What does this fold into?
Amino acid sequence: MADRPLEALEGKTPLMAARTPNMDALAQRGEVGLARTIPKGLPKGSEIANLSIFGYDPKRYYTGRGPLEAASIGVKLGPEDVAFRLNLVTFGVIGGSVIMEDYSAGHISTEEGKAIIQALEKALGDSVFHFYPGVSYRHLLVWRGQVEKVEKLETTPPHDITEQEIGAYLPRGEGAQELIKLMTDTQILLKTHPVNHTRQQEGKREANATWPWGQGKVPQMPSFTERFGLRGSVISAVDLIKGIGICAGLEAITVPGATGYLDTNYHGKAEYGLRAVEKDDFVYIHVEAPDEASHNGDLKAKIAAIEDFDEKVVGTIVKEMERRGDFKVMVLPDHPTPIELRTHADDPVPFVIYDSTQKRSTGAAGFDEAEASKSGIVIEEGHTLMERFVRGKG
It folds into this structure.
């Protein structure tokens, strides 16, 4: 959701340009500031940022994105196994060069993605490699018993190289050749897969390649209850976020119609979240839509996603919680995804903490990057923000 000033918006960010009366009201009554969710030197990814927001220092607990997604899917990893996030992607050819045309294979549906991953597992799965289906274009590859072999392996997130030649970004280091061979084998199989034949006829982008990245081994994390004394749950359509929650001992709640895209069920996430806090202390609700709009370079869609989030998630939750009694709510982006970059940045993000039992207004006129900057509050270690929210410390 966070961004940088845009010429197209006369120097405003999408968050400043969007109509967000519910977040603005929280900002006017609560504490507003900036938090650095991605420590300097670490990857500018959702895995790092969300670990921070959950209250876990990424420098201590981050082992890779893949194992967090494995936890969400229910895939058990041994201590020597390596899990990769596996995107279904679209390769294109320009002037004889292979480029990353689309990191999401045209936001392929979950049903289509599952059919492809099951076919890859049947043809290529063995005692070493296994393919597991996830949501839409987001899937899982597990390399059994190879922790030591791939410790120095380097991979690149596909959304970082949209419309760029892929050659310089292929896996490199120990184990790279075996992984590249597997990628080539999947390309051969995908050429004739029925899902791609149908997508071609319908004028959609084909899932003509796979892209493994974000590899890692099983993390060792204390539970959220041990850290903060609270029981709770996590709501997200994205396996990564659900996986962090599961590793933290939270319940992962599935919401019908939650897609991880612009068409997600915003109201459903809010309603399921409200049900969750009837029985537990805490719920972490994640919405991916503004990030996807940013990766697509779609400013109009990003503003619409921010407004939908404000109205259908924040508005729904705050109105109902005010009816129920006292509550706390924190709202923030996990990281910036500037439209002009079409990928993640590590700038500090705005946050607002509202506690109905306290008056801690920092005098913000609304919720956006500029108002957060004016407060003078900067949380340099983003993983301490949860402590500030839960216990009012920091």
